[in-house]
Amino acid sequence: xxxxxxxxxxxxxxxxxxxxxxxxxxxxxxxxxxxxxxxxxxxxxxxxxxxxxxxxxxxxxxxxxxxxxxxxxxxxxxxxxxxxxxxxxxxxxxxxxxxxxxxxxxxxxxxxxxxxxxxxxxxxxxxxxxxxxxxxxxxxxxxxxxxxxxxxxxxxxxxxxxxxxxxxxxxxxxxxxxxxxxxxxxxxxxxxxxxxxxxxxxxxxxxxxxxxxxxxxxxxxxxxxxxxxxxxxxxxxxxxxxxxxxxxxxxxxxxxxxxxxxxxxxxxxxxxxxxxxxxxxxxxxxxxxxxxxxxxxxxxxxxxxxxxxxxxxxxxxxxxxxxxxxxxxxxxxxxx
Length: 336
Ligand code: PSU
Ligand code: MN
Description:
There is one protein chain. The protein is about 50% helix and about 10% strand. The chain has 14 helices and eleven strands. α4 packs antiparallel against α5 (about 100-110) and α12 packs across α13. Manganese (II) ion binds next to loops. It comes from Diversispora epigaea. This is Carbohydrate kinase PfkB domain-containing protein.
């Protein structure tokens, strides 16, 4: 298994390098103090479809080397489906839009030594020249400023269980309320309170839809959460029309496109729920709070399910990458 993994990584790395040959230097509206990969810069200038990708999932969402392999496979899936990937991170205080292979590898190896960077951390990290990875909230903010309208990830943050007492509500939700980027994800993990998360998205005025043959909002590891979604779209073209409509209305708020995990990759719901219960008890016992809560829960659920949840996690992100890339492509066509 190990040697297969290494061979696969080498193959993907080689494939990956081929995409970074562009020597394109700049485009209109480009920020001088930000670093754009040549591939992304050229795509933005020539209005090719671009898909933003976050990096906290690399440092805090998965262990090395699964995180590296997944990050590269997700980028390649985006390319195969017609768009250019732009993984976003902060390297020594500089905002990077589109990373080189070496940078992705460095962040993957740093794991939680990289600073998890949400909106509130952006001024601090850039003024202190620190290296960090962006959450859904900060990735949306940067993507929007760079003119990228579609963003793919695994799952977003939400209202935590017992959030009515702790007030632990992810900044991802308020960002969705004020930044016009469409986030393609597999719903929210049941480490969170899914019902309250949907309520909060409604309060923030976020456009929410499910994708595919479903009326249920998805629960990340499993296709159904038991909570209904008021809107459902069945093609990537309809999703592109939704993004265009959101933009024509000048709503200036975000969109959440929730794609259920394909049935064949779904995790055993009972095993995951059991792992979540154990992990939730541990955070209370250990007094874990704030930004450390989500990474701790993700790590423990993976450990307790002995990697079963990680397998589902990787499969669903690749599925989201495929759909998100097609949405971005359809949107570029609509806007042309
Ligand atoms: N949920 C996941 N995987 C992740 C995250 C959330 O299933 O990797 C990461 C994302 O980067 C998300 C962040 O934006 O955690 C949310 O953290 P918090 O709950 O502290 O806002
Ligand atoms: Mn939080």
